[in-house]
Design goal:
The structure is a homodimer. Chain A is an all-alpha fold. The first copy, chain A, is about 75% helix and about 0% strand. In chain A, helix 4 runs parallel beside helix 7. The longest helix of chain A has about 30 residues. Chain A is elongated, with a radius of gyration of 20 Å. Chain A binds a DNA duplex through helix 3.
Chain lengths: ~210, ~210
DNA sequence: CGCCCCTATTGAGTAATAGTCAATAAGGGG
DNA sequence: CCCCTTATTGACTATTACTCAATAGGGGCG
């Protein structure tokens, strides 16, 4: 690929290897990213990859963290918007990210949950972050910040991930339609949470 | 473990190895199930494991298929019940399965999505089967069998899996509460599907 | 401009594990 | 009780993660 330019600065080489690893995820599962594959892709020795990432797990961790942070950053809520519009805006930018980087997104939310618990945790953190954003919006709208609400928000993110892969990558539906549908399901599930919470509290009081 | 009884019948030995592999999933991820680990657990040679499953992937495929089928069978809908009750009954038995075999369930729906696309497909089939059951109930109740409904049903199953792991394994909530909540969210999301479908059709007609 | 030292880079090695195969022996049928 | 089918194994190879002492590229100082 690159001409045999050798001895890059530490930061440049690390960035090069990381970028190559993330790009690899576009059409290959994390599991297929071996040390040798990455070394060959970039025309360096296997030992160099070990030098920068320490281990196969270290490489996977670094690559997944990079891809995950790109998603989280691309969908950071605009704090200046009122809650409901902020939710729509955030979902809209996630849809955009999925359309732009579908392979990476799919590898992240589906293909990546390898046996490695460290990698699992990294991906879960992205889901938790998105769930936290949802809960924040709902609390601003006056909903009680309960355990069930948080659990439901997390599960809704899993729901949304599945919808995104199916609709944003597999169909011709417009971004606006997908955003409207997802936001509506978030509201609908919040309603179910409120109802269950009422029943639960009633049972505990009665 | 077992006394050195040798030369079992083909079916018995295969069943023994499979059962051990499924049991392994209770507290370990699939990725950690190497040929050697299973051979040692059962006191046989590695070559014997290869003889029965052909490869590491073959072993994983067989183990996951077995665990998956146990879940699918434990939650087979009772055809004699009317739709809504059948849905509650099915969800209830899934909750029971999760409570009884939480480790296996978790390994199945979370820990297993290893890079291996064959294993991925196996687990997806369980999700698809459950989604198919949901759609069947909804169609019986008069809903149109649209693409969006099917996509949403599949995503709802992912939602339900997350809820089950959080509530059935992590909290003291009663089975009845969990079933009622999940069934309610299924109805709520169906409502969102209907609304989106109306908008979508309206846009196409207009 | 040239040398030199710091450190990025590597080749050659070990360890663990997937996968192969011909040889062995257990145990049921005749 | 023997014999033949076949379950079982030990010994081998291949691949891949991982280590480390040795090499060499190039920026900085004279």
């Amino acid at each position: 690929m690159a001409p045999p330019q050798r001895r890059l600065s530490r930061d440049d080489r690390r960035a090069q290897l990381l970028a190559s690893g993330v790009a690899f995820l576009v059409d290959q599962p994390l599991d297929a990213l071996s040390i040798e594959v990455l070394a060959d892709r970039e025309g360096v020795s296997r030992a160099l990859v070990f030098h920068y990432f320490g281990s196969r797990q270290g490489l996977h961790t670094a690559v997944v963290t990079t891809a995950r942070d790109a998603l989280i950053e691309a969908s950071t809520p605009r704090a200046d918007l009122p809650p409901l519009e902020r939710l729509d805006d955030t979902i809209g930018r996630i849809v955009g990210f999925v359309r732009a980087h579908g392979g990476t997104f799919t590898s992240l939310v589906r293909g990546i949950a390898s046996g490695d618990p460290v990698v699992r945790t990294l991906v879960d953190e992205a889901r938790d972050e998105n769930a936290r954003r949802i809960v924040e919006v709902l609390v601003e709208l006056g909903h009680a910040d309960t355990e069930l609400l948080r659990v439901a928000a997390r599960a809704w993110v899993a729901f949304a991930e599945d919808i995104l892969i199916a609709l944003a990558l597999g169909t011709e539906r417009s971004d606006a339609e997908i955003v409207a549908f997802l936001a509506d399901t978030a509201r609908a599930i919040t309603g179910s949470v409120e109802a269950a919470q009422a029943t639960h509290d009633g049972a505990r009081r009665g």
